[in-house]
Design a protein that fits this description.
The protein is mainly alpha-helical. Helices cover about 45% and strands about 5% of the residues.
Length: about 170
């Protein structure tokens, strides 16, 4: 009979309740807890909901397709996604966080393997990731699927590809 170890892959990460050796983010040179540590799932989902509802409100105000029903559902769904993408690219690329990230105490930063020279540079601890990383991250985030595939550290595939991580402020 096959068990979990026979079927596991890098997509599954660590078994539930266990952090990788050295703690979450250790391989990226991040602290295991406190400011600068990887943001937990609850905060990230909360930030996403705040951003999405803000984009729904903007879409309903500027791109209405109907005057019937609940206010937040009146906007164009494509316009909502466009506003969400624009918000992410502009805000993450320039200041390192969206409205939701800011309210939930999170920010997006560039990360490197812990043993690389760039990981030791203190500039990367506070600098915004830049527009190219933000654009890559946003395009994959809008596809949804890469955002729900996590590695052992809890980073989404969109963050891995963009070379970023969501950390606590």
């Amino acid at each position: 009979m096959a068990d979990r170890r026979d079927l596991s892959s890098w997509l599954e990460g660590e078994p539930a309740g266990r952090d990788p050796a050295g703690g979450r983010g250790h391989r990226l040179g991040l602290s295991p807890e406190g400011p600068g540590s990887l943001g937990r799932l609850g905060r990230r989902v909360g930030a996403l909901l705040i951003d999405w509802f803000a984009c729904l409100a903007i879409s309903a105000a500027f791109f209405p397709v109907t005057s019937q029903g609940f206010y937040l559902t009146r906007g164009s769904s494509l316009a909502t996604l466009g506003v969400f993408a624009l918000e992410n690219v502009l805000l993450v690329g320039s200041i390192g966080n969206t409205l939701g990230h800011r309210l939930m105490g999170l920010r997006v930063r560039r990360v490197f393997a812990a043993q690389s020279d760039a990981a030791k540079d203190p500039v990367w601890e506070t600098a915004a990731p830049g527009f190219l990383s933000a654009l890559t991250r946003t395009l994959l985030l809008c596809l949804v699927v890469p955002a729900v595939i996590w590695d052992a550290d809890g980073r989404g595939l969109h963050d891995r590809v963009a070379g970023t991580a969501i950390v606590r402020r």
